[in-house]
Design brief:
heterotrimer; A alpha/beta; B mainly alpha; C mainly alpha; B: mainly alpha; 2 strands; disordered C terminus; C: mainly alpha; 80% helix; globular
């Protein structure tokens, strides 16, 4: 079965540094795929290639193909702006816009697309904040600044903001690494609820997190995709020795 | 700059005496500079006494400047300063922000430094040379095409009444705009470059174009720095003397038209200093005090807004 | 589809506008350079540089005395301004982590952007009222302008010196004042030089304070208490003259002045770039040395 996102001989460079080497990976739709590996293995770089964020960095480039629903996002005629609308991203440190209210943060993406109808925006705000499990906590204070809420809430705000533009895929780059365990649990719960409607890929350095929520797991090492499979199988019965070494904590 | 705990030994007392001597000498010099400046301010106010006593508060609100009758008031010059500075800011700040956006967000890495240097060179040109250039190069352009054009489409407003001479408040405003660009642009640029990349990433990942990213991530985040930069530019425009003196036409009158000559606080002092004495001199000094107060307020405000990004202000000024 | 296209076009236009602003700002710079060179070069010959200024229409009128006068003004101003500026900068950097240091820094920053004509008024009030238009009053005004520039660059370059240097010296028992001098002389030196050059470039072009203080002079005059000629004054007074030979003098003087000022600025830039590279190297060696000794 073809995945929602399929990479074909994907390579990524920072100048001369070869960060992602010949990765062929298929991310299934409506499921959570975790990407794990030791620091510096290229997992963040890989995920940033999936929404064409990698090339934004000065001196960075990619080679290879990435198919979203069968169409190569790196095709010459494809507008990266369009790709990024379809493939949303949440970053390691929450980054809500500090000069905007919670409301304005959530609808920032839609306003970019020209949406001006108040009713539609209001509805989108409620819908996205509910999806991000934040609605009940902030519904009476939508005018508050985007940074006036706690770290965990800010991250959920960023998730709501990403979801508001109605992407098909949601990429998360170690979204919980700056959060406490309770906030982390809340986010893991909401990701679990989201996977029915979205395709989710999450980079994590926390193996237990991958084991908890991911349907599929990819293990990367030194820029290469070592193994990919159903989470249960990868953790209990890995095919590659390297994978087993990492899982059992021999390095990383 | 931390002092480790001193190990007190027998030979230490002379060293710590030397240390204290050095420290207090250096501190004394810094204090001396400050004290000197403030005493100069006081002396200046003192010298303006005659004028202040003669004219009182009306000095600031009346429009007479008549050496024949020994009547001097400052309003025409305050007005001139305000008008020329307003034009300078209206033209210079948007252009500077455009430059800052280009240098901070759009320019390829290799061109950023050389271009920044060129923009800063604008600050190195002495102001008297700006004046010289304005008289011989800018003026013909103004009388030849710019001002007739403005009269054609805006001549019905009070700002563009009258004939076009090229030596007027508009010319001063334009040259001032050029002169404040290096300051406003580089402080704005520094403020923009200080915006963390994570902010830009947030906008880009939502599908924003470069322009949209700049608008929602950079400009709003950096807005207090940009505003402070504009105030700094205003401060420079207010205090600028030579280029204005050479382009404003030395006319001690109030007129709303930008095409009419005028006079600013700085230029009236420069233009009249040679023959001034007695009451006129005291009045000119009083104008200097007013200018001092205005410049002080503006610069203090700017400094508070911009903080220590002040070092981004090109100090290679070639004279005000 | 058209919404997206509109955004694309907005993006393109905005980028072009920003670039346009840059080009618009460069036009006056380039124009000034072209005009000064093309109009000023014909004026320059040996006589121009060595004769003193004479009235309009006289042959052999030159700006020699103005060049000398400018050099004297800058020299005297530096004599006063550089030491005060450097020491103030040293104070703020090495001892200034308190309310007084912050106050000094604050007023320094304000003074750096101050209208120079007001500074001319200061000097007038203090000196000219006593001894008349004079070289020393002009130098004094210029010195005041130099002080914040030099203080700021001194402070900045001293700040760049890594603390590990100071701590290592103090730990060896070197008294504080010696440490400070050592830090300045060995590592802060180029910063002092660039600060001095920047300040000189700035005051060489100042005109307004000179109108009020040293006033100008058509003769060769070097006395401290006499009015003295200066390049910017020649430019100012001749720019608006109806006589074409005087106008040419103005352009010639402008060419010399701008050549001097711009070359100083370029030198400063090159030195600064070198200093940043050396600083990175210094920082690295110190880090290595510290880690080795552990």
């Amino acid at each position: 079965m073809e995945g929602k996102i399929v990479t074909e001989r994907l390579n990524a460079f920072f100048g001369e540094v070869h960060a992602v080497k010949n990765v062929n990976m298929s991310i299934p739709a409506n499921a959570i795929t975790a990407i794990i590996g030791p620091s510096g293995c290229g997992k963040s770089t890989l995920i940033r290639c999936l929404n064409r964020m990698h090339e934004v960095v000065r001196g960075a480039r990619t080679a290879g193909k990435v198919y979203l629903d069968g169409e190569d996002i790196y095709d010459h005629g494809t507008d990266p702006v369009e790709v990024r609308r379809k493939v949303g991203m949440v970053f390691q440190k929450p980054n809500p816009f500090p000069t905007m209210s919670i409301y304005d943060n959530v609808v920032a993406g839609q306003r970019l697309n020209g949406e001006k109808d108040w009713k539609k925006l209001d509805a989108a705000v409620e819908k996205s904040l509910r999806l991000a499990a934040l609605w009940d906590e902030v519904k009476d204070g939508l005018d508050a600044s985007g940074v006036s809420i706690s770290g965990g809430q800010q991250q959920r705000l960023c998730i709501a903001r990403a979801l508001a533009v109605e992407p098909e895929v949601l990429l998360l780059d170690e979204p919980c690494s700056a959060l406490d365990p309770i906030a982390t649990a809340k986010i893991e719960d909401l990701l679990f609820d989201l996977k029915d409607r979205y395709t989710i890929a999450i980079v994590t350095h926390n193996m237990q997190q991958a084991a908890r929520i991911a349907d599929f797991t990819a293990f990367m090492y030194m820029g290469e995709l070592i193994e990919f499979g159903e989470t249960k199988k990868l953790f209990e019965n890995p095919e590659k020795e390297l994978t087993e070494k990492y899982i059992t904590g021999r390095f990383g | 700059m931390m002092e480790p705990k001193r190990r007190q030994g027998s030979g230490r007392s002379s060293a710590s005496f030397q240390d204290k001597l050095f420290k207090y000498t250096v501190m004394g010099i810094a204090a001396l500079v400050l004290a000197l400046l403030w005493s100069l301010v006081i002396k200046l106010v003192f010298d303006a006494q005659t004028s202040m006593e003669t004219f009182g508060f009306e000095f600031l609100t009346s429009t007479v400047w008549d050496p024949n009758r020994d009547l001097y008031t400052a309003l025409p010059f305050i007005f001139g300063t305000l008008m020329t500075s307003a034009v300078a800011v209206a033209i210079g700040v948007p252009v500077s922000i455009g430059i800052a956006i280009y240098l901070s967000e759009l320019a390829p890495a290799w061109i950023r430094e050389p271009l920044s240097f060129l923009i800063e060179l604008l600050a190195a040109v002495p102001s008297v040379i700006y004046g010289l250039w304005a008289i011989y190069t800018l003026r013909p352009i103004l009388t030849g095409s710019v001002e007739p054009f403005l009269i054609d489409i805006l001549g019905w407003t009070p700002f563009f009444e009258g004939a076009s001479f090229g030596i007027d408040k508009l010319a001063s405003g334009i040259i001032l705009a050029v002169m404040i660009i290096p300051t406003v642009a580089s402080v704005s640029k520094e403020s923009m470059m200080a915006v963390p990349d994570s902010q830009r990433e947030a906008a880009i990942s939502l599908g924003a174009t470069r322009y949209e990213t700049t608008k929602i991530s950079v400009l709003s985040y950096a807005r207090s720095g940009i505003f402070g930069a504009a105030i700094l530019g205003l401060g420079r425009a207010v205090g600028e003397t030579m280029a204005v003196t050479m382009t404003i036409g030395n006319a001690n009158l109030i007129s709303w038209s930008l095409l009419d000559p005028g006079q600013t606080m700085a230029s009236v002092i420069a233009n009249n200093w040679g023959e001034a004495d007695g009451l006129m001199l005291s009045s000119l000094i009083e104008i200097g005090v007013v200018l001092f107060v205005v410049a002080l307020v503006i610069n203090v405000f700017a400094r508070l807004m911009v903080g220590r990004v002040m070092k981004a202000v090109p100090m290679t000024g070639g004279g005000l | 589809m058209s919404g997206r296209n509109a955004r694309k076009w907005k993006n393109r236009i905005a980028s072009l506008l920003a670039l346009g602003c840059v080009l618009a700002a460069l036009v006056p710079l380039i124009s000034i350079l072209i005009e000064v060179i093309s109009r000023g070069a014909p004026a320059i010959d040996w006589a121009f540089l060595t004769e003193r200024t004479k009235s309009a229409g006289s042959p052999d009128s030159g700006i020699g005395n103005a060049i000398l006068g400018s050099l004297l003004l800058v020299a005297w101003a530096s004599l006063i301004g550089l030491p005060f500026g450097i020491l103030t900068g040293v104070y703020v950097s090495e001892y200034g982590d308190n309310w007084f240091g912050r106050t000094v820094r604050f007023f320094n920053d304000i003074l750096a952007n101050f209208p120079s004509i007001v500074i001319g008024l200061f000097a007038y009030s203090l000196i000219v009222t006593v001894i008349g238009f004079s070289l020393i009053s002009g130098a004094f005004a210029l010195a005041i302008i130099m002080i914040p520039i030099v203080a700021n660059t001194t402070e900045e370059s001293l700040r760049m010196v890594p603390n590990s240097l100071r701590e290592a010296s103090l730990a060896l028992g070197v008294p504080r004042w010696r440490t400070v001098l050592k830090v300045i002389i060995s590592n802060g030196r180029s910063g002092l030089v660039t600060g001095a050059l920047l300040a000189i470039a700035r005051v060489a072009g100042e005109t307004a304070p000179l109108i009020l203080t040293s006033f100008g002079n058509n003769f060769w005059e070097t006395g401290l208490t006499e009015p003295v000629a200066a390049l910017p004054l020649v430019i100012f007074r001749n720019a608006m003259s109806p006589y074409s030979d005087l106008q040419e003098q103005a352009w010639g003087a402008a060419l010399i002045l701008i050549a001097m000022v711009l070359s100083l600025n370029v030198i400063v830039r090159l030195l600064t770039r070198k200093r940043i590279k050396t600083f990175k190297a210094v920082k690295k060696t110190w880090k290595e040395r510290l880690s080795l000794s552990v």
